[in-house]
């Protein structure tokens, strides 16, 4: 796990208590928002289970012995959901997908890559996109396949791509 | 074309051809993963063999190296297979492009055929005839205008010329008498030759108006005194 | 003789009195003229001096302080005037500029400290910001206090709170802080930026109700954050006094 540069709030004990005052709380959630996305990006993470979140140093600063409680984590995730940076994976809202680029952004990034590299009107496997040699320099190299699928589905609604299920994985055709 | 099909959602734009390529690509991916795994074990085995040799366990080291050799062979086999797969995939993709090119050519030749079908030979002949007639007529007009004259025309011209000469002789001989006659006849001529009238009449009418304007002035002057 | 002399004397006295009065007026006028002249000379000298040492005044803290004292002694306020000769000097501008920059810093940092900032942090950020744009000018806390006086016209939207021991807090959000709140801030300043109910009770000798009212007000104003994970009791934190926050960026 690569360590990120923690913001000052991370060592500020009340940062781990959801604030009662609305304005302060908004400031707090904004800081968490940025922190979570930075952390997920730095560590190339994509999913989160609230029940296990305390094992991650993100929500648990052992040096000051403070943890963001599950309700707090949920609040942060809901805030991320509002901006299109997270989606709950189950009805209990315990498991979440977190995107440091929104799906629309990912879709645009992937499509412009496909466009620039002559992949329109051809098929690619998901493996090829996230682990292939052609995408080594790309931001989406190493992206979680579930996130990739959702991003491609965004392209599908824009009629710019079509997902092709094959065996246990997926392929995509760009248009 | 894509957008057209896209509207009918159930109809997929993915062809069997695409699926075939995708299958191949997936196979290729699997081989690549396999290669990565073997490469990993190879490195580990080399390390292990070295360690065994250091510990003096020559036999075991040899065993490991033998296994490594085998795996290396596997690796080169997969390399070949991978190459074949890549080739096949590329051939397939190229075939797809070729198909597109052929399709393009087909569409082009269809269009050409359609364009040609518009003109039948008869039609063209008719058009050509019409054109020729038109051209002839035009030439005729040209000739008439530019004075290329027929014999009949020449005779007519000569006859007209004689007439004019005769007329001129008549005019020059009784010249002193004519003006008087003409002066007398002038009012009649004015009635007959309409084109001359407009040029003179406005002057007359303005003159008349002037006179008319003068008269009231005089009348007023008299009344005042 | 007596009568004549009397009349003459009266006459003479009158004349003398008039003469004296004239003389007196003359002398007064002379004195006034001379004094005005002296004032004029002094003013010119002061102006010359100020113009000559303009850069020194702008740069040197102590010099600026002494110059101000000198001006104050003859009733000239270099801060008050933005026009006339003093504006040429730019002394007034210096403080106006500074006060505008103070507001800028307060606004820029209010997202994290809720509109409360220590004078030290304010000064640090100001010097940083100024250092980038123009030649480095030494700014003292005195200068900042001077400049922030200009900001009083904003009413209670901008207040300087003395914390004792030469410490000041600048509050840039509306919301009156009373003596109790200032006392709480003061106590937190001495305690690394955080404070609890029992801390206040023992330090200030307040009863619980008063303590809670004060702390709740600070929460409501967005000046304090609450931490409920302290094993002993709830703690109230002031980001404006929290070292990591002050040093951030």
TrEMBL record, chain A:
Localization, UniProt: Cytoplasm
GO BP: macroautophagy; protein transport to vacuole involved in ubiquitin-dependent protein catabolic process via the multivesicular body sorting pathway
Major location category of this protein: cytoplasm
Keyword Membrane: no
Keyword tags: Cytoplasm, Protein transport, Transport
Cellular component, GO annotation: ESCRT II complex
Domain of life: Eukaryota
SUPFAM superfamilies: Winged helix' DNA-binding domain
Family, per entry: Belongs to the VPS25 family.
Protein name stated in the entry: Vacuolar protein-sorting-associated protein 25
Organism, as annotated: Frankliniella occidentalis (Western flower thrips)
From TrEMBL, chain B:
Region Disordered, annotated ranges: 160-225
Chief place where the protein resides: membrane
GO cellular component terms given for this protein: ESCRT III complex; multivesicular body
Keyword check for Membrane: yes
GO biological process terms held by the UniProt record: late endosome to vacuole transport via multivesicular body sorting pathway; protein transport; vesicle budding from membrane
Acidic residues biased stretches: 179-203
Subcellular location field: Endosome membrane
Compositionally biased tracts (Basic and acidic residues): 163-173, 207-225
Keywords from the UniProt entry: Coiled coil, Endosome, Membrane, Protein transport, Transport
Keyword hit for Coiled coil: yes
Coiled-coil residue spans: 17-44
One Pfam family cited in the UniProt record for this chain: Snf7
Family: Belongs to the SNF7 family.
Protein name, per record: Charged multivesicular body protein 6
Species of origin: Frankliniella occidentalis (Western flower thrips)
Organism phylogeny: Eukaryota, Metazoa, Ecdysozoa, Arthropoda, Hexapoda
Automatic annotation (TrEMBL), chain C:
Keyword annotations from UniProtKB, A to Z: Cytoplasm, Endosome, Membrane, Protein transport, Transport
Protein name: Vacuolar-sorting protein SNF8
Subcellular localization: Cytoplasm; Endosome membrane
Subunit field text: Component of the endosomal sorting complex required for transport II (ESCRT-II).
Membrane disposition: Peripheral membrane protein
Function: Component of the endosomal sorting complex required for transport II (ESCRT-II), which is required for multivesicular body (MVB) formation and sorting of endosomal cargo proteins into MVBs.
Entry annotated with the keyword GTP-binding: no
SUPFAM superfamilies found in the cross-reference section: Winged helix' DNA-binding domain
Primary localisation category: cytoplasm
Lineage per the UniProt record: Eukaryota, Metazoa, Ecdysozoa, Arthropoda, Hexapoda
Highest taxon in the source lineage: Eukaryota
Protein family membership: Belongs to the SNF8 family.
GO CC annotations on file: ESCRT II complex
GO BP of this protein: protein transport to vacuole involved in ubiquitin-dependent protein catabolic process via the multivesicular body sorting pathway
Pfam families: EAP30
